[in-house]
Design a protein that fits this description.
By secondary structure, the chain is an alpha+beta fold. The protein has a four-stranded mixed beta sheet with strand order 1-4-5-8. The protein has a four-stranded antiparallel beta sheet with strand order 2-3-7-6, with no helix packed on it. Helix content is 46%, strand content 14%. The protein has three domains: 82 residues, no CATH class; 107 residues, Butyryl-CoA Dehydrogenase, subunit A, domain 2; 132 residues, Up-down Bundle (Butyryl-CoA Dehydrogenase, subunit A, domain 3), CATH 1.20.140. A hairpin with a 2-residue loop joins β2 and β3.
């Protein structure tokens, strides 16, 4: 593939850069003292992106996007992630919307997609359960048809930003007698529906991002079923493919390396050759990951589904983020343990703690390796 941008892609890159410089809320890059403050800014960022149809950039124009190519998405994601613009983790755009486009009714497309694309609604994902994480098909939350409604009972866990979400994307078991990969259905559910209880799960970085969600006789309209009943596992799989095809994750690591190098150059003393060589190794790895992401975008633009390549990028990127975070914390030493927002070292302490989850969320590293081996390389399961 040609790693150079076309004239049109370069022009779009400059447009995104100009927006980051002058089109964002005044305090977007000043650090946040709480997740509540962060979410307030993120909603404003989403609205401003939506006004340019950039929030749902890859979506067709009829649904509020621009029908962007995979390479345009890469250009956009790369810059936004590099400058740490908040509001980019948008589950509604990433996988809820695409699944609704494929399997939803005309009414669902009208009601759900427009409010995602214009930044009105934030969605959370209600998949994982205490006994169903990597083995997601083992979920036990039940959805029982009762006339014109479904009644939901069960528990979900690790629900990111569920306490701020307007809507939830729920996978629940509708046929307990079917094989576990069948008998699952997907629903749209308003998070303020009576019977839903949200309890916080504070992570070891000290932030409240995750939640556990309890459903007790929660009644939702049958019209909220998305797609065919008992075919939800396939909808979930499609959604995860959209998630794992993300092509801008490399920018966060690249920014961390650039910040680290700038700090090292400002030091009055030299670091040991071991540390310098480790930083150089990380910089090379970042470029390798960047090339992998560009290759994925090229494959997608050619109509090729990059199943193996996307899994490889997710695995490599998650583990690289952990290595970079460890090195950064070591270089910043005691200052790197500071948690004060706005401090340069703040970009080391939190990532060091947060990246522990990188090799678990979105599919564990073990699962990624298994998928690469079986679906990518055709190796036997045992």
């Amino acid at each position: 593939m040609d790693f150079r941008l076309t004239a049109e892609q370069a022009a779009f890159q400059r447009e995104v850069a100009d927006f980051i410089e002058s089109g964002l809320p005044a305090r977007w890059d000043q650090g946040f003292d709480s997740v509540a403050e962060q979410m307030e800014v993120e909603r404003e960022v989403m609205k401003r992106l939506a006004s340019r149809r950039w929030l749902a950039l890859p979506w067709p124009e009829e649904f509020g996007g621009l029908g962007a190519t995979p390479m345009q998405q890469l250009v956009f994601n790369e810059l936004m992630a590099y400058y740490r613009v908040p509001g980019l983790i948008n589950m509604g755009v990433a996988w809820v919307g695409p699944v609704v486009m494929l399997y939803g009714t005309d009414t669902q497309k009208r009601d759900y997609l427009s409010r995602i694309a214009d930044g009105s609604d934030i969605w959370c994902t209600l998949y994982s359960e205490p006994g169903a994480g990597s083995d997601l098909a083992a979920m036990q939350t039940r959805a029982i048809r009762d006339g014109d409604d479904y009644v939901i009972n069960g528990q979900k866990i690790w629900t990111s930003f569920g306490h701020y979400a307007d809507w939830g994307w729920l996978a629940a078991r509708t046929d307990p007698d079917a094989p576990k990969h069948r008998g699952i259905s997907t629903f749209a559910i308003k998070m303020d529906t009576p019977g839903i209880t949200i309890r916080p799960l504070v992570n070891m970085a000290g932030t409240h991002e995750f939640n556990e969600i309890f459903f007790e006789d929660v009644r939702i309209p049958a019209a909220n079923l998305v797609g065919e009943e008992n075919r939800g596992w396939y909808h979930v799989a499609v959604g995860l493919d959209f998630e794992r095809s993300s092509i801008g994750a490399t920018s966060t690591a690249r920014r961390s390396i650039d910040d680290l190098v700038a700090h090292i150059r400002s030091l009055p003393h030299s670091l040991s050759p071991v540390v310098r060589h480790r930083v150089a190794d990380h910089a090379v790895s970042v470029q390798v990951l960047r090339n992998m992401c560009y290759n994925i975008a090229s494959m997608q633009g050619s109509g090729i589904v990059p199943t193996r390549e996307a899994q490889m990028a997710k695995l490599f990127g998650a583990e690289l983020a952990q290595r970079v975070a460890v090195t950064s914390l070591q270089v910043f030493s005691m200052e790197g343990q500071a948690a004060r927002a706005g401090s340069p070292a703040h970009h080391n302490q939190y990532p060091f703690l947060r990246t522990v989850a990188n090799t678990v969320e979105g599919g564990t590293s073990e699962v990624q390796r298994s998928v690469i081996a079986t679906r990518g390389l055709g190796l036997p399961r045992e």
